[in-house]
Specification:
Elements: H1 3-41, E1 48-53, H2 66-81, E2 85-90, E3 102-107, H3 113-122, E4 126-128, E5 140-142, E6 145-147, E7 154-164, E8 167-176, H4 179-191, H5 193-200, E9 206-213, H6 215-218, E10 223-228, H7 230-234, H8 237-246
Parallel strand pairs: 1-2, 1-3, 3-8
Antiparallel strand pairs: 4-5, 5-6, 7-8, 7-9, 9-10
């Protein structure tokens, strides 16, 4: 066997070994990434989750409003990648308590019963105004600060990951002042899931106040983080006001 042939064989063997190692490293990285994602969303292989949304009041049949449907579609790839299965349920259908399976609750808290119940129990420091002569419908008050919607210009949405006191699977809330904000919040969650998991941990809770800017022109595309309001939102109203005054 000539030196040239030996060199070719050695080079081919090195290439094969390198490709095998590269594939193994890539596969290990993909598995770790998938495992982190499963832990963050509470969606192990074969698990079930529920997507809770509004009924479309303009339709005579059970259907989902356009922006909510697009928001749920944004979650579809994540759920599939985790190897989980999803059920879509209307907000006014009796459902079991949370914690047994991951829940994504999307909508307007002034009209979405399930979302309103979760916020009252898990985010007692958030007041959502039903609308009267003094306050606009959908305005949020958090830690003594009011956030009013300016339709088409500035609209707010709360994006939260919460768990019950005894642990269990998380519930994700996207509670917005206008339908377009629900879609913006879910898009923010999906795009930033790795960063959120690193910051808050696989089992951590958070509540973020996001601002959707100029939705009339840009739809759900321009989103800004106003503040991490976890502390104020999860505190009882009295404690929240006291903390705000002490600052």
């Amino acid at each position: 066997m000539t030196d040239t042939v030996q060199d070719l064989i050695a080079s081919a063997a090195a290439l094969v070994v390198g490709l095998a190692l590269g594939w193994a490293v890539h596969s290990a990285y993909a598995r770790r990434k998938r495992t982190r994602e499963q832990r963050f969303f509470g969606l192990p292989d074969g698990s079930e989750c529920v997507l809770v949304t509004h009924r479309d009041s303009t339709s005579a049949h059970w259907s989902i409003p356009r922006h909510d449907a697009l928001a749920l579609l944004g979650l579809a790839a994540v759920i599939e990648n985790c190897g989980a299965h999803a059920e879509v349920a209307p907000h006014d259908t009796g459902l079991q308590g949370f914690g047994a399976r991951t829940e994504f609750c999307v909508g307007d808290p002034t009209a979405h019963r399930r979302l309103a119940a979760h916020m009252a129990n898990l985010l007692p420091g958030v007041a959502v105004h039903q609308g009267d002569e003094a306050q606009e419908r959908g305005a949020f008050t958090i830690g003594g600060t009011e956030y009013r919607p300016e339709p088409g210009a500035v609209e707010h949405v709360l994006l939260a990951r919460l768990t019950a006191a005894d642990g269990g699977r998380p519930v994700f809330l996207a509670a917005g002042q206008r339908p377009v904000t629900h879609r913006a919040a879910i898009r923010h969650l999906v795009r930033n899931r790795a960063r959120l998991a690193r910051k808050y941990g696989a089992q951590g809770s958070f509540c973020l106040l996001l601002k959707v800017v100029n939705s009339q022109a840009y739809g759900p595309d321009v989103v800004e983080l106003v503040a991490d309001v976890t502390k104020a939102a999860t505190a009882a109203p009295g404690r929240s006001r006291a903390a705000h005054k002490s600052e």
